[in-house]
From TrEMBL:
Protein keywords: Membrane, Transmembrane, Transmembrane helix
Residue intervals passing through the bilayer: 6-22, 34-54, 60-80
Annotated Pfam families: YtpI
Protein name: YtpI-like protein
InterPro entries per the UniProt record, alphabetical: YtpI (IPR025618)
């Protein structure tokens, strides 16, 4: 049950950041929200993989676990790296608009 709640929660967080990205008018802020959405997708993939393996415990579920762990970890790592690189640009854009 906790796995399903985390899957739905991370999917909702992803949708929230995508909507914020769509509604934002500043370019750097849009990219920042895209990075946060990428991290949310990574967490979604990892929780989906763990949940599928815990529920099924088959060889196919183990392969899916390994693939989704790798892809989710890459999404989290690259999203965080991109988010940190964009922080000075976001702050500069926000200061210029005020």
């Amino acid at each position: 049950m906790l796995g399903v709640i985390s899957i739905i929660g991370f999917l909702m967080i992803f949708l929230y950041f995508k909507m914020r990205q769509y509604r934002s008018t500043y370019e750097a802020v849009k990219h920042s929200y895209a990075s946060k959405a990428s991290m949310a997708v990574g967490l979604f993939m990892i929780s989906f993989a763990i949940n599928s393996y815990v529920q099924l415990q088959t060889t196919v579920a183990a392969v899916i676990l390994l693939l989704f762990l790798a892809m989710g970890g890459a999404n989290i790592f690259l999203g965080y790296k991109n988010f940190k690189a964009l922080q000075p640009h976001v702050e500069r854009e926000m200061n210029q608009s005020s």
